[in-house]
Design a protein that fits this description.
By secondary structure, the chain is mainly beta. It has nine helices and 34 strands. 14% of the residues lie in helices and 48% in strands. The longest helix is centred in the first third of the chain and has 39 residues.
């Protein structure tokens, strides 16, 4: 029996656990690792690269008409940040300011909200040119105007602050100089003022109050003063780290700004004026302090200059601003002596028609102040109340009439406005008197009260107040006193009106509380006016004929016309104007509605003569 031959024994086959990388796979792995390393190096070196590129790229990224250039920049993930030699120039290339900036923390810490210490230092030279603009305004003006938005942006709640939010600002400036080319100071040179040794610090951290301090020396016109300020703001964020600075904010503030020996030439330079230091004095001590919350706060204001003193203590509570004590303001005659000629041309120049040798001191006191100030609402005048008292010392000087100069004296003026409740009755009382060459030259007395000064919407109404009552009179006032103010018109009040003038206004409450009956009388040698008028909430109407007799009408017309007309008016003519009836409707705010007015007027003229001007004299008409 044949048996099959046995086959050789089989060896067990082993299954490979991995495949040896091919050369192509090895290259791909090294490329990936290389790219990761390059990306990591790029990220690590990004701040350094940005620091290298910033000085050359910065000018092109600033969309201003001026220019911004960087001297150098250094950024780091873990070290500090620094930018030096920042130069802001105006469009003409002149330097406006130079700044150095450094941040203590690295970029990783900054991204967490912790800035550490931020230091800013530099200097600035600001110049106001003849067109009224400054080089700073021209430097930061955008190259193209911002596009107008079709709809206003919706207010959104700011994002919460990061948990590690903290920063300390350290600002210093060796010099901030302001030069005004439009005004001239001592010696005719441009007014110049400088802030020196400027130092400001502010610290902020979650859970802690914001604390800020500022100090600087101010120098102008050879004088040096100081500015100091401090502020502490508490509860400026809530538990969710959101800012709490709205109208109903619980944030608290305790702040004060103080000026010591502040040169007022600095105010002249900053405001583009030249009379502040000259009128108020060369220096000012002042302080403004505030403490409390936006809903419940107190304020204190003090000011002291050679020719000015001011003081006020105010409080704001339940949307009402009120005075804790009378607010006072005193301006000495020295200030008015500087301002008077510029305000009243008749008092200036060698040919001035009047001269004041002793200007009065003026004192104003405001007591019982209350004003309703409700956020988001228009001001309601019905919520305003106060008592204002005005007192002056005597005024002395002289007035010129032709070739004659007469000594003028005006007695101290005392006036009181009692407006404790503007929505109800307001009263005004005032009195003074005058003399010429030590002889009586008139008295002024006012004692009036009125109601209905506001409407139902809380706005002031125009026109004659309803419910006006009382009396105002000017008795035997010498017209010479007013002569300087009409001299340029060619008038001679003493001759054309009369040496003295009497004026009186008598007001009585009308048939209802919204109306008043007025009687006006004016009398001088050449002038007489009389008439009765009724003023109501919707109209002003005559209550009988209003008569105006002007005996010197021709003389007045001739003086006022001067040589500007082709006619010559003889001075002997007189005129009488009789307004038989007049009706002037008033709007809901008592503003006159002239388009709807009507009147019946009779004019009588007698003894008038007119002649035409010709090249060789005049010819009668």
């Amino acid at each position: 029996m044949n048996t099959p031959a046995s086959s050789p024994p089989q060896q067990p086959t082993s299954v490979p656990t991995g495949t040896a990388p091919t050369p192509k796979r090895r290259r791909g792995r090294w490329i990936a690792l290389g790219l990761l390393a390059l990306a990591g190096a790029t990220i690590a070196l990004a701040p350094t690269i940005a620091g290298w590129l910033a000085p050359s790229l910065a000018p092109g990224f600033v969309p201003l008409k001026g220019s911004v250039r960087l001297g150098s920049a250094s950024f780091s993930w873990f070290g500090g940040q620094q930018i030096t030699g920042v130069r802001l120039a105006d469009p003409q290339g002149s330097t406006v300011a130079t700044v150095d900036l450094s941040v203590e923390q690295g970029l990783f810490e900054i991204l967490s909200g912790n800035l550490g210490v931020v230091r800013v230092s530099g200097e600035a030279d600001i110049v106001r040119s003849a067109d009224g603009t400054t080089n700073l305004q021209r430097a930061i003006q955008p190259k193209s105007p911002a596009p107008s938005s079709a709809a206003p942006a919706q207010a959104s709640r700011p994002a919460p602050l990061r948990k590690g939010t903290a920063a300390t600002l350290d600002l210093s400036a060796t010099r901030i100089r302001f030069r005004d080319e439009t005004a001239r100071g001592t010696g005719g040179s441009p007014i110049e003022a400088t802030l020196k040794n400027v130092k400001a610090t502010a610290s902020l951290a979650l859970g802690q109050p914001i604390i800020a301090d500022f100090k600087a020396d101010a120098e102008a016109d050879g004088q040096t003063g100081s500015i100091t300020a401090r502020a502490q703001i508490g509860q400026w964020h809530d538990a969710a780290r959101s800012l709490t600075l709205g109208a109903d904010s619980p944030a608290t503030i305790d702040a004060e700004i103080a000026l010591k020996g502040m040169p007022l030439s600095l105010a002249d330079a900053l405001l583009g004026r030249r009379d502040i230091a000259a009128s108020l004095g060369q220096s000012l001590d002042a302080s403004v302090a505030a403490a409390g919350t936006l809903a419940d706060a107190t304020f204190r204001v003090r000011g002291d200059a050679p020719n000015l003193k001011a003081a006020a203590e105010l409080s704001f509570r339940d949307d009402v601003l009120s005075s804790a004590s009378p607010a006072t303001l005193t301006i000495s005659g020295g200030a008015l002596a500087v301002l008077g000629p510029s305000l009243v041309p008749a008092l200036s120049g060698d040919s001035a028609a009047a001269t004041i040798t002793t200007y009065p001191n003026v004192s104003i006191a405001v007591d019982s102040l209350k004003a309703s100030l409700k956020p988001g609402q228009a001001f309601d005048w019905r919520g305003l109340g106060m008592v204002v008292r005005l007192d002056t010392t005597a005024l002395a000087g002289s007035v010129k009439t032709g070739n004659e100069t007469r000594a003028l004296s005006i007695a101290p003026l005392s006036a009181t406005l009692d407006a404790r409740d503007l929505a109800n009755v307001v009263s005004l009382k005032a009195s003074t008197s005058a003399t010429l060459d030590n002889a009586p030259a008139g008295t002024i007395d006012v004692d009036l009260s009125a109601g209905g000064l506001t409407n139902d919407a809380g706005r002031l109404v125009a026109g004659v107040p309803a419910g006006l009552s009382g009396r105002a009179s000017i008795r035997s006032i010498a017209t010479t006193i007013a002569q300087p103010f009409v001299q340029s018109l060619g008038l001679n009040l003493s001759e054309q009106i009369g040496p003295t003038l009497d004026i009186s206004l008598i007001a009585k409450a009308g048939k209802d509380s919204s109306s008043a009956d007025l009687t006006l009388a004016m009398e001088a040698r050449e002038l007489k006016v009389s008439g009765d008028v009724s003023a109501s909430a919707n109209a002003i109407r005559s209550a009988g004929p209003i008569t105006v007799d002007v005996r010197s009408a021709g003389s007045l017309a001739s003086s006022l016309a001067g040589g500007g007309l082709p006619l010559v008016i003889s001075p002997q003519g007189s005129a009488q104007i009789v307004i038989r009836q007049i009706s002037l409707p008033l709007s809901s705010d008592r503003a006159p509605m002239l388009a709807s007015a009507n009147a019946e007027v009779l004019i009588k003229a007698s003894d008038w003569a007119l002649t035409t001007r010709q090249a060789r004299g005049t010819a009668p008409i």
